[in-house]
Amino acid sequence: MLFTNDVLLRIAKGDVTLAFRRWRKPTVRAGGTLRTSIGVLSIDAMDACVQDDLTVEDAVRAGYPSLKALLAAIDTQRPGILYRIAFHTAGADPRQALRIDAELNQADRDDLRQRLAGFDARSDRSWAFQTLRLIASRDGITAGEIAETVGFEKTAIKQKIRKLKELGLTESLQSGYRISPRGKAFLAGI
Predict the structure, then answer these.
(1) How do residues 122-176 score in pLDDT, each as one tens digit?
(2) Fewer Cβ close by (within 10 Å): the C or N end of the chain?
(3) Three-state helix/strand/coil letters over the chain
(4) CATH number, domain containing residue 144
(5) Dihedral in degrees, nearest 10, Cα atoms 152, 153, 159, 164
(6) In this structure, are 80 and 114 located in the same domain?
(7) Are residues 39 and 120 in the same domain?
């Protein structure tokens, strides 16, 4: 579930607490969470709904100036079941704190080394260490550049880089990636 930067800022303030999406298959579920650039959202409820039942209050809580504006936005979405998603901010993205934690002891380094080796072992070819080093070589290196070098499709390498982000080793930029302080500390120790 994607939000524009403007809506994300309004979510952070608590002004937007609903979203309406048409999906063939939902991408979130009640009780789940969603990481965004402003932190983690907790999904309170997700219910199928009918467009004719939406109210002005729904529109306001979803960040629209009017019911007409909300309905117009829904009309631009792909075909599927309309869902009403209620959420609240649940705190900062835990990966942010992990990224800046550059105090790695030997057990931390060993764990990260094993995880990266595991990524490579479960893949048809090695990519983890090479990708991490490529990202460390230049801020803003793109998935396309990395894919070309390591021999994966761009979409596949993006999925793999997400695994490095989960470990706090890299972070996304507006365009491309960079190594995190944790990633620098890890690479310096191997």
Answers:
(1) 999 999 999 999 999 999 999 999 999 999 999 999 999 999 999 999 999 989 9
(2) C
(3) CCCCHHHHHHHHHCCCCEEEEEECCCCCCCCCEEEECCEEEEEEEEEECCHHHCCHHHHHHCCCCCHHHHHHHHHCCCCCEEEEEEEEEEECCHHHHHHHCCCCCHHHHHHHHHHHHHHHHCCCCCCHHHHHHHHHHCCCECHHHHHHHHCCCHHHHHHHHHHHHHCCCEEECCCCEEECHHHHHHHHCC
(4) 1.10.10.10
(5) 30
(6) no
(7) no
